[in-house]
Design a protein that fits this description.
By secondary structure, this protein is mostly beta strands. Helices cover about 10% and strands about 35% of the residues. A hairpin with a 2-residue loop joins strand 4 (about 55) and strand 5.
């Protein structure tokens, strides 16, 4: 009897050891991996894009994508590619097996392009062309030509005022340097004429 009891105990112990060596899946390992979007929110500038993917672990699931505001952001129904159209916010929804997964998209306006500031190019200043100044031509000074003797006119009267003064009247004025020549006998006497303009 003792021998039988020992054998039974040994068999039970061996069975227990065998059962503990078997890999029993834990609750964490057996649980289904969570399905989720690769992004739950994103910010884009008008004209830019991003791609949403619905994944279960590393596996990409075939979901259907829709946008609630297509004027702000559009999305490829099967590709999940989101393109920003206009400033504002939109919600992209991925549907898989009747379950919905959402991503908030914020669209910002484009920044105005900054034009490079170019320093104004100063136009070269041309030196003014000075026209040669012609030296003023002075009219040649013409010495007044003394009127010839025969241009003073005829003597209209002669009057002896005294032994030393004779008054002769001409049709026109005599020049200041006129010389009156008196003749007495055969001797000529040069006498400077004194002109009386009042006569």
């Amino acid at each position: 009897m003792r021998r039988n009891a020992t054998k039974v105990a040994a068999a039970v112990l061996s069975l227990a050891v065998t059962m503990t060596s078997v890999n029993i899946p834990t609750s964490a390992a057996a649980a289904t991996k969570k399905v989720k979007l690769n992004k739950t929110k994103a910010t884009l500038t008008v004209g830019k894009s991003t791609t949403l993917k619905l994944k279960q672990g590393s596996k990409v699931l075939k979901a259907t994508f829709t946008s609630n505001k297509k004027k702000i952001a559009t999305v490829g129904k099967k590709t999940g590619k989101v393109t920003a159209k206009k400033k504002g916010t939109a919600t992209i929804t991925a549907t898989y097996k009747k379950k919905k997964y959402k991503c908030k998209i914020t669209v910002k306006a484009k920044k105005p392009a900054v034009k490079p500031t170019t320093a104004p190019t100063a136009a070269p200043t041309a030196a003014p062309t000075a026209e040669p100044t012609a030296a003023p031509t002075d009219a040649p000074s013409t010495e007044p030509t003394a009127a010839p003797a025969d241009t003073v006119g005829a003597i209209t009267s002669v009057e002896a005022k005294s032994a030393t003064t004779i008054v002769a009247t001409f049709e026109s004025a005599l020049p200041a340097a006129a010389v009156l020549t008196l003749t007495k006998g055969t001797t000529d006497t040069g006498v400077k004429a004194v002109i009386d303009e009042t006569r």
